[in-house]
Amino acid sequence: METYSQHHLPLILLHLIFIPIIFTACGASPLSTFRAYVADPDAVADDVHRSIENSTAHAAMRRRYLGEKNKSCLTGNPIDDCWRCDPHWEKNRKRLADCAIGFGKLARGGVDGEIYVVTTSEDSDDYRNPEPGTLRYAAMSKKPLWIIFARNMKFRLKRHILLESFKTIDGRGHHIEFDGGKCIASRFATNIIIHGLVIHNCEQRIMDGDGIQIFRGTHIWIDHNTLWNCSDGLIDVTFGSTPITISNNHLTRHNKVMLLGHNDNFRLDKKMQVTIAFNHFGEGLIQRMPRCRNGYFHVVNNDYTRWGLYAIGGSAAPTINCRGNRFTAPDYRFHKEATKRPFVKMSEWKHWNWRSVGDEFLNGAFFTPSGSQTYLGHYEKAWSTNAKPASWVASITADAGVLKCDKNSHC
Ligand SMILES: *[C@@H]1O[C@H](CO)[C@@H](O)[C@H](O)[C@H]1NC(C)=O
Ligand SMILES: *[C@@H]1O[C@H](CO)[C@@H](O)[C@H](O)[C@H]1NC(C)=O
Ligand SMILES: *[C@@H]1O[C@H](CO)[C@@H](O)[C@H](O)[C@H]1NC(C)=O
């Protein structure tokens, strides 16, 4: 969903009429956004750089001394290196909750609850009273839950799985696929972790056809999923959702990939803070990787493979802090620019802070920075990520998307 149009009439109604009612009725006032918002986003970005620096240094050292054998835990990817070296990951699943970096770092998911095993891919017709054993039952529980699966499962749903607060969906160890129908959404929820799902061909019926939709969420982490070809966005984060980390995902074959903020005039999105790290924006993507509005976006060590129109777009004066990404432009000579400020005059966007540090540009790709030339996050003066950042992108993103994890061995 992006702009208001006839096509989106139901959404207009939702915005104008229902949102204030929902805010009031659920007690979900914009306050939760203000509480979750981080006052010093540059400090969070700096913390991410430090953890990458630390992990790549360890990885380089261990490669030198131990050889390349243990590849899955020698990547220099600080999220993966936090848990993937453990051959008993299956017994220590909740360890994952300590491994996020960036704005979504504090997302607890269901770490304080029980492990819940989904035993069937059937969905309940009565979606308000789902059967125990279904994913819907677990997702709607009022208790914190760490949700795992008994076997490989394929879902084709008539309604979104609506995740309530304090849930982890952990697909590790099985092939968990959402193929067609409706997919995953979370509205007015907090502390969500989504890890290890294959999501594709999600369909639009009345409202939205996103792969993963986060609407007014706080403390969200979306890690190691594989997504392609949905009828709306692959990952959409809107309505004052913050703080968020979107990491290690593999995205392909899609037009409008990732929307962060739905409307220029939605002021609460000024508080949106998102870390986009170690994702592989792969083959067949056209635009919005991501498309940002209003907030602060830290885009670090992602691999961009030949977009169709552009990679990173923004409007409504977002801050874009780009570090150590690899941008490979498409061959078409008029689409080499990685950045895009659609429908905005230069006199306006020249003040927006868009900066690129340590990015690598291939096949003629380029980034158009803006904002004060002298603007650098205040921490950067004391701390510089001088170490060959983009050169690590290939190994850091090599396992983007769903991982193949077997019990009793490295994942
Ligand atoms: C640095 O990396 C090592 C190995 O990956 C890890 O054990 C340690 O906790 C990290 N330290 C920090 C401060 O991130
Ligand atoms: C991986 O490395 C660890 C030490 O970091 C070692 O204990 C383990 O045996 C290695 N596993 C394999 C499969 O090489
Ligand atoms: C993409 O997904 C839509 C449903 O959203 C489906 O109708 C279409 O066939 C899919 N396209 C491909 C190429 O798989």
Automatic annotation (TrEMBL):
**Record's family?**
Belongs to the polysaccharide lyase 1 family.
Q: What is this protein called?
A: Pectate lyase
Query: What positions does the domain Pectate lyase occupy?
Result: 152-333
| Cofactor binding remark | Binds 1 Ca(2+) ion. Required for its activity.
Membrane-crossing ranges are: 12-31
EC number(s): the record gives 4.2.2.2
The record's SMART domains line, in alphabetical order, gives:
Amb_all
Tell me the keywords, alphabetical order: Calcium, Lyase, Membrane, Metal-binding, Signal, Transmembrane, Transmembrane helix
Look at the named UniProt entry and state the broad enzyme category this protein falls under. lyase
Which top-level group of life is the source organism from?
Eukaryota
Which reaction(s) does its UniProt entry say it catalyses?
Answer: Eliminative cleavage of (1->4)-alpha-D-galacturonan to give oligosaccharides with 4-deoxy-alpha-D-galact-4-enuronosyl groups at their non-reducing ends
In its UniProt record, which GO terms are filed under biological process?
pectin catabolic process
Q: Which GO terms describe its molecular function?
A: metal ion binding; pectate lyase activity
Q: Which InterPro entries match?
A: AmbAllergen, Pec_lyase, Pectin_lyas_fold, Pectin_lyase_fold/virulence, PEL
Listed pathway(s)? Glycan metabolism; pectin degradation; 2-dehydro-3-deoxy-D-gluconate from pectin: step 2/5
Q: Which cofactor does this sequence's record say it needs?
A: Ca(2+)
